[in-house]
């Protein structure tokens, strides 16, 4: 980030073509796909580049993201906009669900519930968001996540309900 005239700031954002990741996702399980993103072999989501967060760990039913709150995340009243917490929570929750899916399956968020419990500022320091699956069924999955600082202090938490899209069974009906 740089400062221009009259305190105006600028920030440049770059990202890789998301179609690379979409193509890779078609031949990998959810867990394999997410691990490839963490390793940098497959591009992550452009929204993560835009907002400055990234996945750092994934295992079956669990996804961990980190974000360093910055001034560019601020709302007009001088704290980090709640949309940052909601977006990081949504990402960790969805990826926790995605990590349980086989090749050819997908999901979409049906419901996202977010609770903000304290303000976030640019000097809060690195935040970690850990999402964990609660339940994965045939058509619906649920997960929960917490957004905490380095000392474990809670800033936000949330839950999701996701609809699952599974490939039809061989010889079966859709």
From TrEMBL:
It comes from the Bacteria. Signal peptide: none annotated. One of its GO terms (molecular function) is fatty acyl-CoA hydrolase activity. The keyword Hydrolase applies. InterPro entries: ACOT13, HotDog_dom_sf, PAAI_dom, Thioestr_dom. Residues 78-154 form the Thioesterase domain. Pfam families: 4HBT. Keywords: Hydrolase. SUPFAM superfamilies: Thioesterase/thiol ester dehydrase-isomerase. Belongs to the thioesterase PaaI family. This is Hotdog fold thioesterase. It comes from Pyxidicoccus fallax. The lineage of its organism: Bacteria, Pseudomonadati, Myxococcota, Myxococcia, Myxococcales.
């Amino acid at each position: 980030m740089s400062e221009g005239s009259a305190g105006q700031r600028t920030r440049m954002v770059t990202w890789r073509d998301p179609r690379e990741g979409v193509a890779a996702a078609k031949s990998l399980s959810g867990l394999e796909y997410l691990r490839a993103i963490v390793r940098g072999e497959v591009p992550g989501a452009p929204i993560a580049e835009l907002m400055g967060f990234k996945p750092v760990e994934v295992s079956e039913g669990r996804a961990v993201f980190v974000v360093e709150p910055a001034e560019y995340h601020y709302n007009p009243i001088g704290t980090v906009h709640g949309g940052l917490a909601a977006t990081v929570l949504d990402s960790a929750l969805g990826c926790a669900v995605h990590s349980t899916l086989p090749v050819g399956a997908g999901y979409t968020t049906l419901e996202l519930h977010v609770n903000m419990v304290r303000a976030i500022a640019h000097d809060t320091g690195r935040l970690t968001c850990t999402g964990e699956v609660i339940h994965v069924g045939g058509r619906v999955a649920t997960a929960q996540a917490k957004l905490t600082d380095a000392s474990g202090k809670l800033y936000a938490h949330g839950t999701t309900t996701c609809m699952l899209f599974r490939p039809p069974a061989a010889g079966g009906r859709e």
